[in-house]
Amino acid sequence: MDGQRIIGINYPQLRALCGISGLSESGISQSSVDAHEEFMNLYQKIFLQPKKIPPGIPLGRESNISHASQTLKAMESQARQERNRNRPQEKQTQEMLINHAIRALKKRPIERSQKDLQVILKMLKMFPCLSTQLPKQELNKISSIGVVETWDRSQILFGHDGFFLMLKGSVKPYTRKGSREDQNKPAIGVGGFFGSFEPPQSEDSGNITQCALTLEVCEIFKISHSGYAKLKEDIAAKDHAMKESLIKSCQYYLSWPKLSINHLTKLIQLKTFPANQVLVKEGRVCSFVAYIREGECTLLQDIGALIHPAKKKGVGIKSVVVRRLGCMESFGEVSVLQEQPSSCTIITSTELQAGIIQPEALRDLDSVTISLMLQTAQPTCRKLSQEEITKEYMRQEKSKEWDHIKNKTKQNRDSTERNRTAGGLEWTALLLSTADRRSGADRSGGSRPRRLSF
């Protein structure tokens, strides 16, 4: 141990380990249990652990580290300068938009043009307190009912009757007692708000700032409780009328009483599906009832396994188009209410907008409406026999083949016409070029003096 040293060994720790009393020496005696346990617990300490290199800049020369650090600092400084350079421009653009919106808001709602409403809406979308709290429909309509109010310095605003958004200036929460808590609250600046869209409940009233004191001249956008309530009623009425019209336009519901249609209208949810999405699979119960508003669906039935005659390899599952569903049509009523597997696969041909009713909501309807739906609605499509499916499949395949031949012939004809036209133009250009050269030669020949013969 005192001779040649081995790299990676902690020799002071090794000496301490060998000095444990109770260890056997040269096999003369057996080690005691305590000495053996102490040795096993401590022997790993005789091996030196390699130093861990932290992640980040690789270890190397100090000059490299210094250079990398300087580069990083330069990049951060450049990014900070870029942000600071763009910030005044963004602030200026925001202030210009607010000024334009204030001018539009000072007009009476009935006098605002479509351009005014677009400017107001664009400004309102800048503020998260509106864009995150209000649904899209309400946010789009707020610009037609909101007004702007101008308040001088040191005036008290009461926010019990609406929602107030700061466009210019600043205010501070205020109570009649002037408590220390109000003094510690920060001022509300541009983009801040106080009040509420709807009258607060008793338990929430303490969390909402109801009064404010103006610290300077302020321009404040206001939405009254009554105006917001009227807006919600108008949107709900329009939505209800649209859903009612959607149901009544479907052929099975033309003679339904208004009360039963209202029951369905309350359950409908509007949804948009992308093209080529499978809505229902053949042999499975429909996952919802759908009333198509816009778009088209394709109904397919499997024709079983077919061996491809050309390839003579593998088996493919083919489908035949049974029919198509479009605007003012519905599907899924019988399948959902009777838990009947669908006889066809339904795929969206285009983007589809539809009103859907979930099975749980449909089954909770009153018995009269359910009975009426079962009496009037029909299965989406009947199950074709194997012979009918095969015939229809062959007809559609022949139609596809014929369309392919027609398109190919048309393309070849168009290509021939283009080549013929291009060839004619080339010949015309060649003839014109030859004629120009000849006329040039004639002109040059005419200018030469004649040679006299003696």
From TrEMBL:
<feature type="compositionally biased region" description="Basic and acidic residues">
    <location>
        <begin position="79"/>
        <end position="93"/>
    </location>
</feature>
<feature type="region of interest" description="Disordered">
    <location>
        <begin position="69"/>
        <end position="93"/>
    </location>
</feature>
<dbReference type="InterPro" id="IPR000595">
    <property type="entry name" value="cNMP-bd_dom"/>
</dbReference>
<protein>
    <recommendedName>
        <fullName>Cyclic nucleotide-binding domain-containing protein</fullName>
    </recommendedName>
</protein>
<dbReference type="Pfam" id="PF00027">
    <property type="entry name" value="cNMP_binding"/>
</dbReference>
<feature type="compositionally biased region" description="Basic and acidic residues">
    <location>
        <begin position="400"/>
        <end position="420"/>
    </location>
</feature>
<feature type="region of interest" description="Disordered">
    <location>
        <begin position="400"/>
        <end position="421"/>
    </location>
</feature>
<dbReference type="InterPro" id="IPR018490">
    <property type="entry name" value="cNMP-bd_dom_sf"/>
</dbReference>
<feature type="domain" description="Cyclic nucleotide-binding">
    <location>
        <begin position="252"/>
        <end position="365"/>
    </location>
</feature>
<dbReference type="InterPro" id="IPR014710">
    <property type="entry name" value="RmlC-like_jellyroll"/>
</dbReference>
